[in-house]
Amino acid sequence: MSVTLADARRVIEAAEKRADEIGQPMNIAVVDAGGNLVAHVRQDGAWIGSIEISISKAWTSKAFDISTKDLGDNSQPTQQFFGIHTTNAHGRGVAIFAGGVPLTRDGEVVGAVGVSGGSGEQDQTVAEAGAAAF
Amino acid sequence: MSVTLADARRVIEAAEKRADEIGQPMNIAVVDAGGNLVAHVRQDGAWIGSIEISISKAWTSKAFDISTKDLGDNSQPTQQFFGIHTTNAHGRGVAIFAGGVPLTRDGEVVGAVGVSGGSGEQDQTVAEAGAAAF
Amino acid sequence: MSVTLADARRVIEAAEKRADEIGQPMNIAVVDAGGNLVAHVRQDGAWIGSIEISISKAWTSKAFDISTKDLGDNSQPTQQFFGIHTTNAHGRGVAIFAGGVPLTRDGEVVGAVGVSGGSGEQDQTVAEAGAAAF
Amino acid sequence: MSVTLADARRVIEAAEKRADEIGQPMNIAVVDAGGNLVAHVRQDGAWIGSIEISISKAWTSKAFDISTKDLGDNSQPTQQFFGIHTTNAHGRGVAIFAGGVPLTRDGEVVGAVGVSGGSGEQDQTVAEAGAAAF
Predict the structure, then answer these.
(1) Residues from chain C contacting residue D76 (CB–CB below 8 Å)
(2) CATH no. for residue C76?
(3) What is the ipTM of this complex?
(4) Which of A20, A32, C82, D65 is buried most, with the most CB atoms less than 10 Å from its CB?
């Protein structure tokens, strides 16, 4: 029911294809139902600062069963979840900006893909391409 | 192709000169292409809280190939990268305010300088003076 | 000169083949010259506790240009590096047991592979198989 | 009474000279009376894993007003301080192997130098050369 390595590779392959199309090298991470990393790749030239962010986005998306983009909308100052990005001091950082997208099977979130390396819009389209291949 | 200790010392010397001119003691750090520290100095009287910040600024600037000032503009509430400052829980903190400037060679970012100890404007001018000497 | 994603995939493929041969699912991580993660996979059934360890082993091996097995021999009680495993509080943990092996090009260590998921002997043979494919 | 940047540079210069003599590139860090970093250099080719260790050694040496070599002798299994290397979870790691040496003025420890990059014996001789120049 969770995400196999073969699943993760299929998601990453589709995400990489989209990243190549838009010409922006990316970090791409996939986590399983437990929020644990299944696979990660950093495309040549992608930011080293985005390694951890791609994993954080994937973790966050599964951890709350939501896209990080939608979580982010609710986490701005004055919004209901403002401050959530600093709550997990002993674990993964909570990412509250676009690029983390749930992986769903039979209506249930069983994992997530996280993408970091470009603008929020670029990260989102690459993550969505990955999730679509799941 | 990366940053040697001699490079780092030249950058720090120029940054220190600028800090002396404006009369504000600073922490100055230089990282290489892998984001790893090459050298750091704390001028007499500079804040001890700025030791780590100067290193974080240098790391951040190389990690995302951008000045921390420009990154900060995109990391304000409602902007596309809001929340990025807490994402790297397992590594260096991501700094989203002025004072981190990339070091560029042949059009490629091969390192960065990070400065902390004064106002954003002061940190920025000292970091830029350092980068100009690279 | 450093490790490309294609390099990392070749290393991981060879390491996975060896893990399959010995029938022990593994986490396999590859870092570049700066110690930054290039790629990671967790084979189906591999321990989730070994995700971080595989990355730590790869980082450690590059960070000190040595196999973690050899570092470990020098890090036992009364040996010269005893205690090194807790020194990097602000970065990656230092791994002092078998499974991290340098990736060498023209006599220079330009990256490393880290493997975790079995006994020390199993981790080591899988890491060596990966490194041999570099 | 504490360690100025000029002091730290004199210590580092002497330590670098000794490192060059023995042909082993080093990380060298100096902290002041408060245990806070004054300056750090990584010589070309020195291990990136030793950046943090050099700072930890300097911090530890000042934090307990003792050389890390002597502290290490008391921190082996069955000795009185065994376990001290993991006590500072929220701060600097405590280093319990050679390479951290106090800087003394008028019989008082006012800072320390930490060296990492070679064997325990090499680290120690470089740190002692640095301290002698204080």
Answers:
(1) 77-78, 82
(2) 3.30.450.150
(3) 0.93
(4) A32
